[in-house]
Specification:
Keywords: Membrane, Transmembrane, Transmembrane helix. The protein is mainly α. It is built from 5 helices and no strands.
Amino acid sequence: MFVYFLLSGFGFLCAFAALPLLTGYCAVNYGRSFWLWFTLGWVLPIVSFFVLVALIVRGQLDQGERLLAEAKAILAKAEAVALKDEE
């Protein structure tokens, strides 16, 4: 009986860890701290995920932030080409 509870508790933790990992992964993809959002995902699992999604959506809908992201991508590409040309 004890083994059953131990294994079911372990299974619950593994299943429950999916949301913090997903939250951390989404955070890293949008330039935020993995460990901060992973920890928030453990403390406030559903709430942290929706807060992160709201922050991402707000950033995507803001024209200024989109233009800034495009400019950064263009500059990074130009820098890569310049470094390649120097070699």
